[in-house]
């Protein structure tokens, strides 16, 4: 099922073709010279998002990512490969008291700059295009 998207990604797996999302570095945490994480602020932008709720957290992330890859690799209203932006963001959801994680996760893909004004529509109705306000992200 994922053969075509993986082949498309492999054909387009040139690091120069990966667009890094513009951000402002807020904090950088290192230990013994190794980067542990960065706290970044991304500006207001449009993202393709999918919320998944499988039995296992890792399964939700994997399935959500695969659905987004189909959108990126031509299963969209433009019929074109959209290009890769990094990082792909995973949002972990908590209960109302914020005392425990829930099974639900959101996997999100930043739409490349050239698509921000008019993003292609996904064929998969589980994927939505959302405009996020300036957002704090922890990246590793």
Automatic annotation (TrEMBL):
UniProt xrefs under Gene3D superfamilies: Regulatory factor, effector binding domain
A molecular function (GO) term: heme binding
InterPro entries: Reg_factor_effector_dom_sf (IPR011256), SOUL_heme-bd (IPR006917)
Name of the molecule in the record: HEBP1 protein
Family according to the record: Belongs to the HEBP family.
Pfam entry (one): SOUL
């Amino acid at each position: 099922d994922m053969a075509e998207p993986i082949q498309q990604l492999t054909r387009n797996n040139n690091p120069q073709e990966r667009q890094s999302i513009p951000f402002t570095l807020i904090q950088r945490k290192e230990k013994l010279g190794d980067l542990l994480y960065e706290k970044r602020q991304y500006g207001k932008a449009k993202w393709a998002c999918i919320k998944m709720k499988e039995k296992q957290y890792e399964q939700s992330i994997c399935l959500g990512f695969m659905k987004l890859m189909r959108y990126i690799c031509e299963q969209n209203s433009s019929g074109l490969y959209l290009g890769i932006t990094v990082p792909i963001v995973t949002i972990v959801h908590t209960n109302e008291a914020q005392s425990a994680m829930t099974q639900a996760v959101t996997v999100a893909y930043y739409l490349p700059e050239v698509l921000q004004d008019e993003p292609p529509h996904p064929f998969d109705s589980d994927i939505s295009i959302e405009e996020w306000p300036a957002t704090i992200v922890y990246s590793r």
